[in-house]
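User: Please predict the structure of the protein below. I'd like the answer in structure-token form so I can feed it into my own downstream comparison script.

Assistant: Understood. Taking the following sequence of 306 residues as input:
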Amino acid sequence: MPARAIATVLFALASLVGRLPWRWLYRGGDALAWLWRRRDARESRVARRNLELALPAWSAAERASLHDAVLRTTARQALETLRFWTRPHADNLALIREIEGAELFDAALAGGRGLIVAAPHYGNWELLNQWLATRTELAILYRPPESAIGEAFLQRARRDAGDRVTQVPAEGSAVRQLFKRLRDGGVVGILPDQQPKAGDGEFAPFFGVPALTMTLLPRLAARSGATVLFATCERIDWSPAFRLRIEAAPAGIADADAQVGVAALDAAVETIARRDLAQYQWTYKRYTLRPSGRGEDNPYRDIERR
């Protein structure tokens, strides 16, 4: 069966999940988190190692408590994202109960110098994308899934935004496309805390640990003169309600010195993550690549299972 046909079937199944009442959806997420812990699944192992690396001063009991909250939040987000992908956007956006900094976004649009929206893996960035699409046309840089089925599903899931959102794969001519859009006064969305390929980034502290960080965003900001804003859509408590925040990026993020730019970028993401550590994506292997010459090994190697 072609990848697109399989993706259509998967999207139909996701739609069924998305129609569940919120209390059932969140109970399903809690059950999934329990299963991850019970089986010590990949998500559980990676989150535990990341918390050990990022929060070494915490006691084992404190990290264990946060680990449980991270898995619960991550599992709930996975299911709520299926709902956001398959339900009317107007219904989804009604869940945004508070908005902070919208005036910064409007001013950046009116300025006409181009706008880079940096959206860390915090809260629900898919709901954030839908809000952005109501305000402007934009191009979103994304890393395509490894499987053709995954790519077809993602394209179908994000299709309802129509022509207002252009998905740009992080490969080939992506930099030229994004720079052209910014030069023309357009808007670009980037997830700034994805580990780039070796040679496409610089190391900077992230929770005190050197992390290979993309130079793409600082370079685009420096070359284009575009405004950079950070944006998040965080959950309010455990209810299906969200607070959307828009905030200015630190000045150093557009520095001509790439090292200054990536340090400012990581510092800004860390500040956001520390607002509610459980809402950050700790299940991602952020520290896989290590600085050369220091003798450090991949910190996830001993927890990988084939």
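That's the full token string. The mean pLDDT is 93.
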